[in-house]
Amino acid sequence: MPESNLDQTELPDIPDKVFFRIGEVARLTGVKAYVLRYWETEFRQLRPKKSKSGQRLYKRGDIETVRSIRSLLWERRFTIAGAREELARQRRLARGEADTETGDEPQTQPGLMARPELDVEAQQEKSRLELLDRELTQRRAEVGAGEERLAVQRDELEERAEALGRQADELDRRDSALSALADSLAEREAALIEREQGAQDRGRAVEGRVALLEEREKAVARREEGVVERTGEIEAREAEQVRREHAELQAEATLRERAEEALTREAELERREAARADAEASLRRRAAELEKKDAALAAEARELKKLEQQLRAQAKSAAQVDPERARALDTKARILEARILDAEGRALESREETLRHMRTVRGVQRELTWLQARLAEARADRS
After folding, report:
1. C-alpha–C-alpha distance, residues 335 and 328, integer Å
2. Where are the alpha helices (DSSP H) in the chain?
3. Going from the N-terminus, what domains does the chain have, and what CATH number goes with each?
4. How far apart, in whole angstroms, are the C-alpha atoms of residue 162 and residue 92?
């Protein structure tokens, strides 16, 4: 048994309080907390109360009893059994009973005769009571040890539940970040679609201008024909020559505009193709991350199920020793079961999101194939 360096006279004064926690008692008595819990199993005189949360609450008399046990064991070198008998003797002396170990003759009332048969019966009754007392002390020690083990197991389960809660919060945070990334990708895709529609509108406007120019060319040709008819054959030939040169120049300008337009469309298609390829790669990475998340959620659900089975097994084993503790363990098992259902639900949501991303990837692939075909057509037209 470990001994403290403090002497009995060097211990601090006991404050004027009603209840003391085990840490305060350890400081006031110079005895470690685990030693105090052990002494509770050995000395029936030391029985502190417990709060609803299971914490020990010592009174002033309990602290004085601990100091007496400390003095008997560590200073006067009593054994545990001897210290137990000495405490009982001190209690009897405090109540005014005679101590048979001092050798004093029992006092009888005047006029009464001593009856030996009553002394024998009293000794037998005393022996029987001491036997029952030892048996009760042993059973209390066993119950106290069981309560200590259950308290340790409860603390471990609470720590594991807190760790799982922190892991679930981290997964939720990562899921939120991935959702924000998906929203950003959707916004970028919408912007690309809007730009594409704008380019198509500009192309239709250019085609309308070309048609207008062709109509104007036709009007000019009709006017030139009238001039030719009025000015004669020579002027008609000159006008025809001018018209042809003008047509050739206009055709050349038109071809140049169409070539530039084809180059612009080819560059735009190449840019869109690259953007679609980047979007496809990003969506594939997102799908892979979601699959990893799905696997992590499934593993978490399996771990929670194992923990639930352990809790229910512990509750079943503790049902006979401490029904209240068993009910608390069963309540924690139900909470874990609810967390398991929540983890499985989030796993299903992750799988559905993965399927949606895969469908989006296939749509992007089809659009990328269409863009590649358009790019090939544009290059053929340019050549």
Report:
1. 11
2. 22-29, 33-42, 60-70, 80-94, 116-231, 233-318, 323-382
3. 1-95 (1.10.1660.10), 154-382 (no CATH)
4. 51
CA dist 25 and 28 (Å) reads 5
Answering whether pTM is above 0.90, one says: no
Residue with tokens 């926690």: 21
Match 């799905």 to its residue by tokens. Answer: 294
CB 82 within 8 Å of CB 43: no
Structure tokens at 43: 């000395």
What are the distances in angstroms from CA 280 to CA 114, 284, 335, 359?
108, 6, 41, 11
* Radius of gyration (C-alpha) of the chain in whole angstroms: 49
pLDDT in tens, 137-195: 667 666 555 555 665 565 565 556 456 556 645 755 675 676 577 677 768 877 777 88
Q: Which of 364, 374, 311 is nearest to 339 (CA)?
A: 311
Angle at 177 between CA 176 and CA 181, to 5 degrees: 115
Residue 301 neighbours by CB distance under 10 Å: 19
245's tokens: 């040169």
> How many whole angstroms separate alpha carbon 352 and alpha carbon 337?
23
